[in-house]
Each structure stands twice: as C-alpha cells, then as structure tokens.
C-alpha cells in the first residue's frame, strides 16, 4: 500500500504533506499520503471516540448523544512547557516528581508517542501554531517571520479569535523576537498585547552563586528567589498573570483561549533551590548511553554549543566537538533539569487549582505539551538540535470535561494543588494512554474538533498562498461511537533538522538559513527511526533527496535508545529503500 520512490528528479521544494482526505488522490498528486499514515491519525481520534462510551466518563451524568455537548461554551487553557522531554511520572519516569501534571494526565487522554516537527523552539512553535511543517513556514532558525517570509498563515489563536474567542497569551507561547514580528503575532493572534514576565530580561544574567561566592551565568543555577532581581522568577510571574486573567475573563460571556508558556526547564536551569531536596545526588544516574555511538554519522551529532557557553561548563575546558562532560557534572545537570521540571510542575498546579477555584474546570479544555525534548547525555549529546527521540518526543495530553473525566460530585475537587514537599501522593489513576505516533502539527485541527469548529481544510501543494489550511492529518469525529480500533496499524511521524556541514562545527546546532547545506529528514514509525541527511539549497528552499550525505536506521525493539545505526547494514538494505521512498513522498 505504500508508494515507492517516484520517477524522475527527486529535487523538490518544501515537501508539503496534507491531511487525510487526500487518500483518494492518485500517487504523485498534491497531498497524497500512504494509507498507513492516515490510519495513524485515525488512531489518535479513536481514543477519544472510545472515551465517549467509557462508563467512568458517564458516572455522574446522563449520557449525551452526539451533538448534545455544549461545545460552544467551552474554553481552552493551552499550557506549553519549554524544552520538556517526557521525563514525567505519568510517562513512567520513576524519579521525576511531577504530581500536578500527573494529576492532569490522570483525567486526560495522554499521547505516549507525540513528536515535534523540529527540535528548536521557534520552528516548532510556529509549526504547531500554524499547522504547517517547517518546510512550509520556511523557518529553521530564529531569524524570519512566516507572514513575510513564507505566507500569511492563520494561527490557531487567530482562528479562534475569528470565531469570537477572547485570545490571551502569557509567557513564552510564540518564540519571541523576529520569529513572531517582535509582537508575539499581535494583533493577528491575540485580543490584547501578550504578557511577558519582567524578570525574563535577566535570563542570562550573572545571578548564579558559585563556590567562591561570586555570581556567574551558569548552566546549573539553583537560586534563593528572595535574592533574585525583583525577588521573583519568570514562571512565577506568568502563573500570577494567568490567574489574574482567569479572574477577569470568567464573567465576560465569551469563550476564551488562554495560552500559558512556561520557560522551564529551558536552560539556564534556574529554579528555587529548595527543589534540589527532591533529588538527592545519590539517586541521580548518568544516561544509559552516555557515549557517542560508534556508527553515528558526524552530521547527525549536535555539539551542544549553547551548553558549552555557560560559565560553569566553560570552566571545565571540554574539547570540541566530542569531548565528554565529566561524570560528576553530568549528574549535576540531570539533577537540576529534574528539579526545574518539579518547579514548573508546581506552577502548573497553581494554575489548574485557580482554574477550578474560578469555576472554570468543568467548561475548559486543558491542553498540555512542550515544544520539543532535550538530551540529557544520551549519545554523548546535550540540549535539543537533533532528530533523536529524546530531542523530538514531547508530552501531549488533553483534558476534556465530561469526556476524558467525569464531572465531579458536589465538593469533589478536580485539580487540587499538590505540594511535592508536603503532600503524600499515592498512585494516581492512569489516564487513557494512546500508543500511536502523533505530531504537534495536528494540534490545530484537534483543538478545533474538540470545540466543534469547522476544521481547517487540507493544505494543497504548494500552499504558500493559502492562509488557512492544515498539514496535520485528518481526524475522525471523536464522538463517533462507530469507530473501530486501528491500534495495531503502522503510523508515521516526520521530523527534520538542518546542518551547515557534514562535520560538527560551532554553528551546527543553530545554523542561519543562508548557512544550511544539509537537511536531515526523519521518519519515526512504530518500529523504526529512519533519517536521511540530504543536500539542501537555502536560496531555493529545495532539498535534493537523491544526494544523500548520510543515513540512520534504528530498530526500536532491540535498540530503544537509538544507539546502533543499521543504515549501512546489508541485511536491512530493502528496509532502507522502503523507508527512503517514504521520505520522497
């Protein structure tokens, strides 16, 4: 059923991929996709369809037929973490303490295998907020604004604003700066100017106390909040502003879309020092695969230059590009990353508790996700900037009142705040976990589906001239109780990352557009992670898919850490040809 590589030249601009509904199109026509990919998107919607008939979701209310839910009065709280991998209790991490996010997950549908389209803040956020892939936004760095550089694409908040929603932005939602026109895309996307915490301007300030008592701009930076500028931190300010807005907008009569972007656990790992108590050093271990794999192509390696630039890491005098961080400092980084997660989790808990206290928990959809993951020493790598699962896989969950969880009984709480230091949390009930691979580019149509709004149409090819369309997969009606299981079918997701050269160099992690010479296109299926690094022309935004610089193939069953590259193994030559053909679709 999968179309093999086509004939003639494979040199083509921006490989647009359309939603399902394109299944009836002949191979080679715009938007054609193989049936396996469409089944993956159907699996995503299936879980919601099954939830509609689960007894637990109807325990305290009379079952409602399709169309009876008052979707028109539903709000959306959209929470985005920054550089958060799936190191959460609800994703099976035995060490990380994330009780408030775990509580949300227990009442949500949780996607186990959700992936960003590029492991970099600006391209990823622009992609999922416009429902276009990076090849269509033409954003691979942080130096262009899609409306002037690619096309005047409608965003998710803009679309909701056009449908009478009050749209509000707090913290880091769009990537700031040129990427969002220095305005966070206001006034297109937002009803009022977005809020940014005043203390974010101290992000890289020398406020981290060193062993000599002096202040540094460190990577590892636990702090006494009372000693910080303005005696607070950005995520604390964002939570306070979001709560203030909830109190103001609850009585407006209009549905709202409130996006709250937390800055942690993005580096520097600056957080209240008390969170270190949750992670004794003796409980922190190295990554299971801390060495650079022997068969990793040099082009695939990211030399973590932003980590190297921090004062405490620079003092280690680590050789470039492969010199390892000393084991004892690796443990410190991992400890602080986990502590930053727990700090961010408490902010999520405060926000969800306020949502309920304002009487909004029963008519507000809550979405929680991240822009991409972060390597913590796996493959000898740190930070993002790659196509590996640790850099591209993200948490993704949807709480839909009355659908993913029962409406509460009188005096029963939905989102009580959980203090990780004082509250003893037993085993929370597990949310409904979806195994199928899904993509953040599908978020836009998914939110529209849950709100009962018309879905953006599938993008044609090319779609630079089309303001409203989606390159996410088509989704079945989540309340369609006639849905059938496709849990065992193959599903595919696509990620990509640019490089300036075949070998690691100082700008390998974040090349400017004009410096890009190679693009790594990657497929993640149920069984494989497959990547081909091909020539790329930034002047024409064109990838030459036949000029392959290097390749990677990892088998999940025997190699879940993606350490044993089998791309050049003759035994897998047929599989390589098959997966390479999928990249060329």
From the structure above, extract its key features.
five-stranded antiparallel β-sheet, 585 residues, eight-stranded mixed β-sheet
Task: Describe the structure concisely for a colleague.
With 585 residues, the protein is of the alpha/beta class.
Produce the secondary structure layout:
Elements: E1 11-13, H1 35-51, E2 75-81, H2 99-106, E3 109-115, H3 121-130, H4 134-137, H5 146-149, H6 156-162, E4 166-171, E5 208-209, E6 215-216, E7 220-223, H7 234-249, E8 256-261, E9 269-272, H8 305-308, H9 311-314, H10 327-357, E10 364-370, E11 375-376, E12 382-383, H11 389-392, E13 393-394, E14 396-399, E15 432-439, H12 443-451, E16 493-499, E17 518-524, E18 528-537, E19 542-555, H13 573-583
Parallel strand pairs: 2-8, 2-10, 3-15, 4-8, 7-9
Antiparallel strand pairs: 1-19, 3-13, 3-14, 5-6, 10-14, 11-12, 16-17, 17-18, 18-19
Helix pairs in contact: 2-10, 7-10
Give the radius of gyration. 23 Å
Task: Calculate the mean pLDDT score and round it.
Answer: 87
Distance from first to last alpha carbon? 13 Å
Q: Name the structural class.
A: alpha/beta
Helix content: 10-25%
The total of beta strands comes to 19
Low-confidence stretches: 1-44, 49-69, 474-488
Report the sheet with the most strands, covering strand number, pairing sense and barrel closure.
Answer: 8 strands, mixed
| Number of discrete helical segments | 13
Indicate the proportion of strand residues. Answer: 15-25%
Shape: globular
